[in-house]
Specification:
Largest sheet: 9 strands, mixed
CATH architecture of the domain at 25-40 and 51-209: 3-Layer(aba) Sandwich
CATH class of the domain at 25-40 and 51-209: Alpha Beta
InterPro entries: AMP-bd_C, AMP-bd_C_sf, AMP-binding_CS, AMP-dep_synth/lig_dom, ANL_N_sf, Mitochondrial_ACSM
Protein name: AMP-dependent synthetase
CATH topology of the domain at 25-40 and 51-209: Rossmann fold
Organism: Rhizobium deserti
Strand content: 15-25%
Oligomer: single chain
Number of strands: 26
Pfam families: AMP-binding, AMP-binding_C
Radius of gyration: 23 Å
Family: Belongs to the ATP-dependent AMP-binding enzyme family.
Length: about 550
């Protein structure tokens, strides 16, 4: 299933036909399909800060995942069981994912940055039967192990000690055969459970079928200018525990034969990011808007680092004009913005290669997906009107359900549309503008204001390292725009800077969107996927 290059967007969209086979397994699609024909083909490369980078081939991935899958079965883990993966980017993470899919179990990726309470909540909700983790993850697990009766097996990827009766992953692999009878799975069989990022409330577990991988290919190929191309090699700072890292990068790249670069860092560091792209000869990257804005803090990056990027994509929040223009100059490519959610991902995209790009727009519907902006009755609104972004069903990237939450599932999958809760506008050319989460929209003096463009504008000021905007209750205006700003290193915050930033937004964005209040802070709350947790800032603003 490959998008043909050299054709127009209209032709691609008109002629696209889904070709998902009646029997499909994510694990074999990501490993064995290549291992059977090109076992020495490199599929993974790992960046090490000491320069001792390493690589894994498809043949190795296939054999190790087969052996681990046999080990899981020997432990009694099988079809439908949840296998938690509390790991950073790395070879072992991919092996564990592929092994889980091959036996028909359900992978539950979890971020190492989760606190103990968040980790316990997710493991309990999913009733995970097994967990694969490292020493750091084990240190979190020790505190809650006795409160997880469903968790029968703990598998360690390193040699750290433990008193939880854990097993070593490499020992399990060495002890079991690499010949495997893969579970007979169809596209709709459960394969993957990803918790939403929790920006607006408690995270929910979205359950996906094996079809979700095939469903991501058109969006991935469009955003990365008809990947795979000769020399493509992809990297993202996004945690593989999230849809952004796992489904926007790792799994589709593996299925398409594109080497994936991994890195051990958990907290985004701009200098390290440039170094990875330089030393690992990265040609393709997925960098969320927040991370792109942080890259701006690296002075003279084009002369310090030798980049040879072919494509850069971004999603998760609105990119904004300031960051769009900066990236074009500093990275040497036009960022292809795209859109999706944990429940329905990679359905809107840009592709500068064929002229599908507009600053401030998240793109056009990806071939194979029907996307619209609808009103409260489920009817499509006219161009220029604000409504809710929605995806027509059935669609292979639409999730199966929320785990053990029928009410939330029914609300999300209302009627023929999956409703996103995100507000957008469709223009006359078919481009969609992302305005923001319905919960995040600021209502001030009759205007409905999206916070992302304010944050992007503020981030364009040299004195601003990071910014977030929320609505603060106001008796006269309903709400006023309140901004929280992390100053750039060496910048002295104060009233003079606040006044300067207000004028900056007034003149560069709009008179009605400038922040009437600005608070300078040391940090801004982010999810582990790099999104601003605005609900916490709204609560803080209301209390001030």
């Amino acid at each position: 299933m490959k998008l043909p290059s050299g054709t127009s967007y209209d032709e691609l969209y008109r002629d696209f036909v889904w070709e998902i086979p009646p029997r499909f397994n994510m694990g074999t699609a990501a490993s064995d399909a290549w291992a059977n024909n090109e076992p020495e083909r490199v599929c993974l490369q790992h960046f090490s800060s000491d320069g001792r980078h390493s690589a894994m081939t498809y043949g190795e991935l296939s054999e190790r995942s087969n052996a681990l899958a046999n080990a899981f079965r020997a432990l009694g883990v099988g079809r439908g069981d949840r296998v938690a993966l509390l790991l950073p980017q790395g070879f072992e993470t991919v092996v564990a994912h592929v092994a889980t899919y091959k036996i028909g179990a359900i992978a539950l990726p979890l971020a190492l940055l989760f606190g103990v309470e968040g980790l316990e909540y997710k493991l309990q909700v999913a009733s995970a039967a097994a967990i694969v983790t490292n020493g750091f993850g084990m240190s979190r697990l020790v505190e809650i192990r006795e409160r997880l009766p469903a968790l029968k097996h703990v598998v360690l990827t390193d040699d750290s000690g433990s008193d939880l009766g854990s097993m070593r992953m490499h020992d399990l692999i060495d002890a079991h055969s690499s010949h495997l009878e893969v579970a007979d799975t169809g596209p709709d069989d459960p394969a993957l459970m990803i918790f939403t990022s929790g920006t607006t409330g408690p995270p929910k577990a979205a359950l996906h079928g094996h079809r979700v991988l095939a469903g991501h290919l058109p969006g991935f190929q469009l955003a990365h200018a008809f990947a795979p191309q000769e020399g493509d090699r992809i990297w993202t700072p996004s945690d593989w525990a999230w849809a952004g890292g796992l489904l926007n990068v790792l799994m589709p790249a593996l299925m398409l034969g594109i080497p994936v670069v991994s890195s051990p860092a958990q907290k985004f560091d701009p200098e390290t990011a440039f170094r990875i792209m330089d030393e690992m000869h990265v040609r393709n990257a997925f960098i969320p808007p927040t991370a792109l804005r942080l890259l701006r803090s690296v002075a003279d990056s084009r002369h310090k680092y030798a980049l040879n990027l072919r494509t850069v994509t971004s999603a998760g929040e609105a990119l904004g004009l300031e960051t769009y223009e900066w990236a074009k100059e500093a990275l040497g490519v036009t960022v292809n913005e795209f859109y999706g959610q944990t429940e329905c991902n990679f359905v809107i995209s840009s592709c500068a290669e064929i002229g599908v790009t507009r600053a401030g727009k998240i793109g056009r519907p990806v071939p194979g997906h029907r996307v619209a902006v609808i009103d409260a009755k489920g009817l499509e609104v006219a161009a220029g009107e604000t409504g809710e972004i929605a995806i027509w069903r059935p669609d292979p990237v639409v999730f199966l359900k929320y785990w053990q939450d029928d009410a939330a599932t029914a609300a999300k999958l209302g009627g023929d549309w999956l409703v996103t809760g995100d507000l957008g506008r469709l223009d006359a050319e078919g481009y969609i503008e992302f305005i923001g989460r319905d919960d995040d929209i600021i209502t001030s003096s009759g205007y409905r204001i999206g916070p992302s463009e304010i944050e992007d504008c503020l981030s364009g000021h040299p004195a601003v390292h990071m910014a977030a905007a929320v609505g603060k209750p106001d008796l006269i205006r309903t709400e006023i725009v309140k901004a929280y700003v992390v100053p750039s290193p060496g910048v002295e915050p104060g009233d003079a800077l606040a006044a300067e930033l207000r004028e900056w937004v007034k003149t560069r964005l709009s008179m009605h969107e400038y922040p009437r209040e600005i608070s300078f802070v040391e940090d801004i709350p982010l999810t582990t996927s790099g999104k601003v947790i605005r609900r916490l800032l709204r609560q803080r603003a209301a209390a001030e």
